[in-house]
Amino acid sequence: NAGMAQIAEATNIKIDDFVAIKDFCKKNAIDLVVIGPEAPLVAGLSDFLQEEGISVFGPRKNSAMIEGSKTFAKEIMVKNSIPTAVSESFTDKEKAVEYVKDRAFPQVIKADGLAAGKGVIIVENLEGARQILEEIFVQNKFGSAGNRVVVEEFIEGQEVSLLAFTDGVSVTPMVEAQDYKPIYDDDKGPNTGGMGCYSPVPAVSSEIYHSIVNDVIEPTVFALASQGCIYQGVLYAGVILTEKGPKVLEFNARFGDPETQVILPRMKSDLLEILQATANRELGKVNLDFSDEVCLSVVIASGGYPQKYKTDYEIEGIKEAEQAGAVVFHAGTIERSGKIYTNGGRVLNVTVLAKDFKEARDIAYKACSSINFKDKYHRNDIGLRTLEQYSYSKSR
Ligand code: GLY
């Protein structure tokens, strides 16, 4: 996107063209490849490049299956008593319907494989469940990602993301973050890829934080290792804070978006050193420090997202937003003749590091107001709940 092009040399290689990526790395003597998205991880890009002698940050295919198959992730959790919602996997529509019938609503139906963030559906009644199962199994709504589904109990509570670096032996957790998935204020409307985020999360006490590390992330890494999957990269645990403690909602085999936009600005350590140490299985030798400052990010989207939206509108005011004290990360943007245009659903992440959430919100929303493009949309309540809850323990 246009943001990357400002700080790096961009090259246009398709993410699934492994040979072209390898050839580019060899030709340009690339020292380290950091694989961002889940699809190439699950397709084995890390394995392919490592076998060519290229150093990679990002798990091999067998470990990336923690995101690539929800059934695989559930089996690891159940076998190792890692807390998660009760669930069952099905490859047969009628058997899935029978299971759903006997359980209380709402329930959650998930495509087993990768579905670009769209494969999780909450169903309120049997009729709705039948319809979704029909769409997945008969109409192939998610293609082969829906050859198997996971039906899961619906668990309630605040959602928290905790990401950790791991080289398969050492686990180095980052600070937690909270994403806002629904499109509208007060968490109304359909889910998106994330409309805003903040870190730290006041609802996460030191005890909860350590319980997510000790009862979720570490046992998952070690369970994977015990079955020959040496996880090298970042493991993302999405958990729900239930009355009975944190329960895993999902794992991702990569950095989260927009979590990363609020976690990395708080990182005081050298990211490159950590990425290299992870790739070299030397993570135990490096320290990871975070600032006590808070970070908040508001996503500016194209009007209509997550459904239909138009692109190619000129964006103005990014410089002014930066002068107001924000860092503006680009998502769906493109540059042409020195001008920047919208090029996706989520367009910009207006991010502020500040001493407290009030200051972060004030600066972020002032910066948002100086950015303009046709049909621009953002939520107005990002971080509002922190103003009531802020009690972050610096002892972590
Ligand atoms: N924020 C959710 C994700 O990156 O999948």
Produce the secondary structure layout.
Blueprint: H1 2-7, H2 18-27, E1 33-34, H3 38-43, H4 45-51, E2 56-57, H5 61-68, H6 70-79, E3 87-90, H7 93-101, E4 107-111, E5 120-123, H8 126-137, E6 149-153, E7 158-166, E8 171-173, E9 178-179, E10 182-184, E11 188-191, E12 196-199, H9 206-226, E13 233-242, E14 245-252, H10 259-263, H11 271-279, E15 294-302, E16 314-315, H12 318-323, E17 327-330, E18 333-336, E19 339-342, E20 346-354, H13 357-370, E21 376-377, H14 384-389
Parallel strand pairs: 1-2
Antiparallel strand pairs: 3-6, 4-5, 4-6, 7-8, 7-13, 9-12, 10-11, 12-15, 13-14, 15-20, 15-21, 16-19, 17-20, 18-19
Helix pairs in contact: 7-8
The protein binds glycine.
Glycine (GLY) binds at residues 179, 194, 252, 256-257, 259.
